[in-house]
Amino acid sequence: MGMSVTISAATERDVEQIFRLQYLCFQSEAALYGNYRIDPLVQTLDSVREEVAADCVFVARLGEEVVGSVRGRLTEDGAAAIGKLCVHPRLQGHGIGARLLSAAESALVRERGATRFRLHTGHRSESGLRLYRRVGYETVGTEQGADGVPMIVLEKPAGTYAATA
Questions:
Q1: Longest dimension (CA), the chain
Q2: DSSP string spanning 114-131?
Q3: Alpha-carbon distance 60 to 35, whole Å?
Q4: Element (H, E) at 139
């Protein structure tokens, strides 16, 4: 009998699995840019722990294993910054990323009053760009990441979060 993937809010007990998963998932992203100093690869365990405690963090679980995660936090301008979306490579392409985004967006509106969502992704991240556009995000600009990677900035209004489910 197979197991189904469940989405839920992250807890302290998920921190180490999120940390390891993030490191695994963002290796391919680093390879796209020849830059292994991108934020998800250099983030500390304590920093992940702080994010889980303060932000809206969701995980996808297959049994007890964390196989996906996403973070969101409200910014000063009322937008919800969404980041570090990742799904274990063996489970990509099955809608888990879209489900994680939907859970985070819904909570950010309900619990934090977000008026729109904003995220950044590397300009060569075709699979990420396809997902974000499919669930309603539109390019609003570009910027240089702190790690030197050219980033595409995407946004969508908060009222459209239900469309991502």
A1: 47
A2: -SEEEEEEETT-HHHHHH
A3: 27
A4: strand 138-144
pLDDT digits (tens, 9 = 90+) for 94-108: 999 999 999 999 999
pLDDT at residue 150 tops 80? yes
pLDDT digits 0-9 by tens, 49-64: 999 999 999 999 999 9
Place of tokens 């980033």: 151
Identify any residues that bridge with 66 across adjacent strands, giving them in sequence order. Answer: 61
Beta bridge partners of 86: 69
- The predicted model scores a pTM of 0.91
Q: What burial class does residue 105 get, using C-beta atoms within 10 Å of its C-beta: 0-12 exposed, 13-18 middle, 19+ buried?
A: buried
- Strands (DSSP E) contained in the chain are 5-9, 56-62, 65-74, 79-87, 116-122, 138-144, 150-157
Residue 1 neighbours by CB under 8 Å, 6+ apart? none
